[in-house]
Design brief:
The protein is built from 3 helices and 2 strands. With about 70 residues, it is mainly alpha-helical.
């Protein structure tokens, strides 16, 4: 069995991988680093923000985006 990954958000839509990076836990980008997808496909952020996702998931995603923007 695979080890359980810690959630980055309350709903488990974003989790931490073994290296401690946030990864998506759903959809076409499942298992991929959130920061990589936000850089490669900026429209994915907007899609999530406008879709029916939990508010806290959107908040976590925004904080990841802002953190990476400030690097």
């Amino acid at each position: 069995t695979q080890p359980t990954q810690a959630n980055a958000d309350l709903a488990g839509m974003i989790k931490f991988n073994a290296e401690g990076y946030e990864i998506f836990n759903f959809g076409k980008h499942k298992g991929k680093k959130v920061s990589d997808i936000l850089e490669q496909e900026p429209g994915y952020y907007s899609w999530i923000q406008n879709a029916d996702f939990p508010m806290y998931t959107k908040k976590v995603l925004t904080s990841i985006k802002l953190r990476n923007f400030n690097l």
